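Entry for the shared binder. Reason: the reviewer on the internal report wants the predicted structure included alongside the sequence.
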Amino acid sequence: MNYQQGDILELEITDLSNNGDGIGKHEGIVIFVPDTVTGDQVKIRLVRLKSNHGYGQLLEIIEPSPHRIRPRCIVADKCGGCQWQHIEYKYQLSSKQQQLTETLQRIGGFDQVVVADMIFPRLDLGYRNKATYPLGFSKTTGKVKTGYYRRGSHNIINLNQCPVQDERLNPLLEEIKWDIQSQNWSIYDEKLHKGALRHLSLRIGRRTGEILLTLVMKNLDLPNLETQAQYWLQKYPDLMGVCINHNPHRGNAIFGQETKCIVGKGYIREIFADLEFQLLPETFFQVNTETAETLLNIILAELNLRGNEILVDAYCGIGTFTLPLAKQVQKAIGIEIEPSSVSQAKLNAEINYIDNVSFEVGEVETVLPQLNIHPNIVILDPPRKGCKPEVINSLLAIKPEKIVYVSCNPATLARDLKLLCQDGDYSLQKVQPADFFPQTAHVEAVAFLICNKFDY
């Protein structure tokens, strides 16, 4: 490869990568270029070279793609919160569906897989029900800033509003930043590991409008904190409470283990699938409420429940899917490694008077074989790294009639589906993609499998 770092090249973008970068070729060498889209003719600077590919920085759009649009955020080209605001939404959807299909074919070997049309939210902006922003100081103005990191760095792009979060949170984002400035509270410096305030977290119930504000702090001794929090509670009618989370450790983890409510309530209510859920500051709950509910309805339709099934929901969290499904079956069991999530799941079951469900604390690979039952249905919703081999082995041993695999990573989904289907134990019936994160390259999907050897 006769290239050097810093070389200026012209190329055509012919595809999009799984992480959202445009892909082009120059004399047979693959080059990844952020902020581009299929069909762009661009001039780039090579910024990094590997043995068989390179990475480029966009310098000029010679001829724009027909799929290129003007971003609706003035810092979209700087902020790392979105990668695809420059791409028309219809093409975002088709690209995600294509990437999912190709990944299932390449990694899973499913050449004849049925990938349904992408489901997507009514709004491609203003959909996020939670946002957590790092706090910092501007070197030029000396003022407090908050926003998302610039892509590939820990430099904060200052925001006063964010178009992908629920618009009802925007006034708080701007005004609370100024209140922190006026209080002269210390801001955390990750390099020196000094200062108090690390992150500002805002969460809203899409259906209830209730808001929860959380300050993530290294130190818990801010002056006038309770007085300021009481002022916020009075100023914003939909603000239910102000919490502080203690994170004294170095690293990229946002929340620490200890959270305390200092004024108001330490939770908000959300309505999901006609059930009421209580959400704490650090609770995992799908950030796109409406799309999650649409996906749940598709799962219910595909399962065609009769009411006599035993269902296991692995990686169940606070019971977001467990509880609506429990209303349709004889017995539901949730498995979750986080004790705090299990406590919330049990509370949410009580709130909704659902008594045919139980929750177990522990790793799925440990708890699932110890249940000593033969469930009709197992729901899987693992983290991005997918299921551990022990989980796959347990499923192949107990052979539930149906498996529903909810995934946020097409690559690990394809890998795990291949393991489940390779010996003929299961057949992949359908894969349903869903766009939980418009303006980004992330794609979620749910796969439906049926057991070929279910005999009880």
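Summary line for the report: The domain at 8-68 is CATH 2.40.50.140 (OB fold (Dihydrolipoamide Acetyltransferase, E2P)).
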